[in-house]
Amino acid sequence: MTRIIGIVSGKGGVGKTTVVTNLGVELVTKFKKDVVIIDCNITTSHLSMVMGMHFLPITLNQVLRGNIPIENAVYTHQTGLKIIPASLAVKDVEGIEASELKKAVKHLLGKVDLILLDSAPCLGREAKMTLDVSEELLFVTTPYVPSVMDTIRTKEMVEPSKTKLGTVLNMIENMRHELTVKEIENLTEMPVLAQIPYDRNILKSLAAKQPVVTYNPYCKASKQFLKLGREITGEDPINLEKEDVIGKLTGLIKGVGVPRF
Q1: Is a pLDDT exceeding 80 seen at residue 190?
Q2: Tally of domains in the chain
Q3: How would residue 96 be classed by pLDDT, with cut points 50, 70 and 90?
Q4: Distances from the Cα of 33 to the Cα of 29, 82, 112, 246, angstroms
């Protein structure tokens, strides 16, 4: 069964795209899930840029015009993560039908494990498009009152039938003027699933056009994305090193790769 998770926020600049890309890569590489991420921020698309994939010929914009099947707009990143980008060209914003996304996404059901929707911020047409299509929601916020209040407003717009997974608290600097995790959980009435610090490795990874979890998998931010993957799947990451050792031992038992003297 395919899960459709919208990554949303009430305010721009809180790091939704960073969460979507890094969570997507972790789910593919560490949890062995088949994942597609979709850039639903049509007017200010960034997803393909942060993944180092520029000016792709077929985009979500054409899908939303009804010109192209959604399967034709799927690209595979070198990590194995599947991506449906939005166009970077301003002229391609015209003529799109937001209602087409729900119809298009149906063609992906049963073909992948998870669909992550990178929402536009605030509560405009594009954000509502994501809320409409999503079955589950993950809220991204920063530890400040305006951002948290916008999260609460966004949550109030969501239909009761939608599953609210919780919040991702981003850009934490552990300053006295920041809201605490307990305060944010009390205000939003949702659990904080990951606490991502303000980490310069994220800025460096953006410049390198790759997710931080591949740029520096051992930094503090990457460890929180791994934790988020655990929270989303309810599973432990697959130990690739352990698998490799088991594979070598199995080969030796079968007489494959036994050194000759």
Answers
A1: yes
A2: 1
A3: confident
A4: 8, 11, 8, 21
In a domain, 261, yes or no: no
Q: List, for residues 123-135, the tens digit of each pLDDT value.
A: 778 888 999 999 9
pLDDT digit string, tens, across residues 203-225: 999 999 999 999 999 999 999 99
Structural domain range at position 232: 3-253
In a domain? residue 147: yes
